[in-house]
Design a protein that fits this description.
The chain is α+β, with helices and mostly antiparallel strands. It has one domain: Trna Endonuclease, Chain: A, domain 1. Helices cover 35% and strands 25% of the residues. A six-stranded mixed beta sheet has the order 1-2-3-5-6-9. Strands 4-8-7 form a three-stranded antiparallel beta sheet.
Length: 171
């Protein structure tokens, strides 16, 4: 799978595509599967963002919306200082845009070849959110930073997508 296929996978999950939910939860526990299917009751409209501003998808629903950057790797840790700093620059741009617009930034990290819930959710440190977005933001793990200020995303430190969906889609 290439990057755009993972974007489509994540988009299909948030849009409550039942065929994708069945496929993605085959190796999940019963609780993870149940949590994934919570999105069926409160799906999102998901729009693919054009360009390379560090934003791949925009998820919108009446009560909450957020900007999403998708990352995939077979390694469980991503250092944003790699690739000549491109990932770091994207993260800084996303953070500035989200602060300017009081929007929730979300990083979705899929670990390749993992059985079970392979997605983890993170956010960037952000102080301008209000209302429900602020509450959601405080529940999400933030990306860590190196001593040089470069972001590091450790899959093990993220919130499982099944837990995020259970929280964000509660009735």
């Amino acid at each position: 799978m290439n990057g755009s296929q993972y974007e489509r996978e994540f988009r299909s999950i948030l849009e409550a595509d039942e065929a994708m939910l069945q496929k993605i939860t085959k190796s999940c526990s019963a609780l993870e599967r149940e949590n994934y299917f919570n999105v069926v009751n409160k799906p999102f409209a998901v729009i693919r963002a054009a360009g390379s501003l560090g934003i791949d998808l925009v998820a919108v629903r009446g009560d909450v919306s957020f900007l999403i950057e998708i990352k995939t790797s077979s390694a469980s840790t991503l250092h944003f200082s790699s690739m000549s700093g491109k990932l770091q620059d994207q993260a800084e741009s996303m953070k500035q845009l989200c602060e300017k617009t009081a929007t929730l930034p979300v990083y979705a990290f899929r670990l390749k070849r993992y059985r079970g819930d392979s997605w983890r959710i993170f956010t960037l440190d952000h102080s301008k959110l209000q209302g429900r977005l602020r509450i959601v933001h405080h529940r999400l793990p933030t990306l860590s930073q190196s001593s040089n200020g470069n972001y590091i995303m450790r899959w093990d430190d993220g919130m499982p997508l099944s837990d995020f969906l259970n929280y964000i889609c509660k009735q």
